[in-house]
UniProtKB/TrEMBL annotation:
Keyword Signal (UniProt): yes
Signal peptide residues on this chain, from the entry's feature table: 1-16
Keywords tagged on the record: Signal
Protein name (database record): Uncharacterized protein
Claim: Signal is one of the keywords in the record: yes
């Protein structure tokens, strides 16, 4: 699981292989069944009571989906990355304190040669590396702090003889060495080197 915006949703830690139902509607303030994400928040008589802005959650099973939207905050399911942030009526009141967005687009990345994802991203998926940084409307509000970008391009590097990766890069990927520091337009940075050249051993 990947923690988004530093806020933990009520999600089960277990991953379900194949949920029995594609969608579920359940009352708030209970754990989300494994294999599901929240796709809408609402107020219903069936789940009446309480002072919250919503008391009902619509859930969707995500197994096998190439992409889907889900309400924030959430723990991103394994195999998915956030590729867009937005504000929707379906997820009203769902956003965390660190972002104006309340809806996330999740995209399955397995098998993709490259994918653009929203920052911040706590863990880069194994086999991928950051090859570009940019500010986009798609990921609006996703990057807090002093950096000027909110979107990263992740590239699968397996089989590449040589390529450039954005800094900072703590260590070279297994099987590669850093042969140069350079400056390229696709990586962020006010001055000085902003990328490294990697070469396969």
């Amino acid at each position: 699981m990947i923690l988004v915006f530093g806020v933990v949703a009520l999600l089960s830690r277990a991953e379900a292989a194949t949920p029995a139902q594609t969608t579920l509607t359940i009352c708030a303030n209970q754990p989300i069944p494994a294999g599901y994400v929240i796709t809408a928040l609402s107020t219903t008589k069936a789940c009446g009571g309480g002072l919250a802005a919503w008391n009902t959650m619509t859930l969707r099973a995500y197994a096998g989906l190439k992409s889907l939207t889900a309400c924030a905050p959430l723990n991103v399911p394994s195999g998915y990355l956030i590729t867009a942030l937005s504000t929707t009526n379906a997820c009203r009141g769902g956003q965390g304190a660190l972002t104006a967005a309340n809806t996330l687009t999740l995209t399955a990345y397995q098998g993709l040669k490259s994918i653009k994802v929203c920052a911040p991203l706590r863990n880069i998926p194994a086999g991928y590396i950051v090859t570009a940084q940019a500010a986009t409307a798609t990921c609006k509000g996703g990057q807090a702090g002093l950096v000027a970008w909110n979107t990263m391009t992740l590239t699968a590097y397996a089989g590449l003889a040589s390529f450039s990766a954005c800094m900072p890069l703590p260590t070279a990927p297994p099987g590669y060495v850093i042969t140069a520091q350079t400056r390229i337009p696709t990586c962020s940075g006010a001055s000085g080197p902003n990328a490294v050249t990697l070469k396969r051993l």
